[in-house]
Amino acid sequence: MFERTINGAREAADAGQIDEWVHAFLSAGLGANPPMAVGLRKQQRWWIGPVAVPVASLTRICGPEAEMEYRTSRDAWEARVAAIMAVEPEQLPPVIVEYRGPGLLRLCDGSHRHEAIRRRGVDTLWALVWCNTESDFVSAQSVWGNLSRRSAI
């Protein structure tokens, strides 16, 4: 199996196994998100990446703030972000985002990583981007070109 790092995600992409990497990553281990793993398998996906995405272009959906879709306590949030900040960025897995149209990306997995990288003052982070339709995939290719992969489903 591929490592749970950006290099592991790149190797999976090169082998045409992004779906397998994402499913394994979301299904077990630190920060597992099994419901998202199951949800992604409900339909065919088209994948792009890993690609460098501007940190400022993504909005977190998890955190201690009242407006967050997925709330966590401030203490738990800060502990997890601090732990991630201690890891070199290349050892982190990419965040997982959904393409929703030109210039519209939804951060679906990786809010803690996003915040840790933002606090380090880094301008970009690695992402795997999924498209829900072939037409979105074609549109997104105009941004990221041949770094795109079709899912196995």
Describe the structure.
By secondary structure, this protein is of the alpha/beta class. The protein has a single domain (6-150), classed as Conserved hypothetical protein from pyrococcus furiosus pfu- 392566-001, ParB domain (Alpha-Beta Complex). The chain has helices spanning 6-14, 18-27, 34-40, 74-85, 111-119, 134-144, and strands at 46-54, 62-63, 70-71, 95-99, 105-109, 124-131, 148-150. The strands form two sheets. Strands 5-4-6-1-7 form a five-stranded mixed sheet, sandwiched between helices. Strands 2-3 form a two-stranded parallel ribbon. Helix 1 packs antiparallel against helix 2 (18-27). It is globular, with a radius of gyration of 15 Å.
Keywords:
single chain, 153 residues, alpha/beta, Conserved hypothetical protein from pyrococcus furiosus pfu- 392566-001, ParB domain, 5-stranded mixed β-sheet, two-stranded parallel ribbon, 7 strands, globular, disordered C terminus
Task: Point out poorly predicted stretches.
Answer: 147-153
SSE string, helix = H, strand = E? HHHEEEHEEHEHE
Span from first to last CA?
Answer: 19 Å
Percentage of helical residues?
25-40%
Return the domain count: 1
Largest sheet: 5 strands, mixed
Quickly name the level 1 CATH class: Alpha Beta
CATH architecture assignment:
Alpha-Beta Complex
Strand percentage: 15-25%
Count of alpha/pi helices: 6
Total strands: 7
Q: Structural class, from helix and strand content?
A: alpha/beta
State Rg.
15 Å
- Large-scale geometry: globular
What is the structure about, briefly put?
The protein has 153 residues and is of the alpha/beta class. It has 6 helices and 7 strands; from the N terminus they run H-H-H-E-E-E-H-E-E-H-E-H-E.
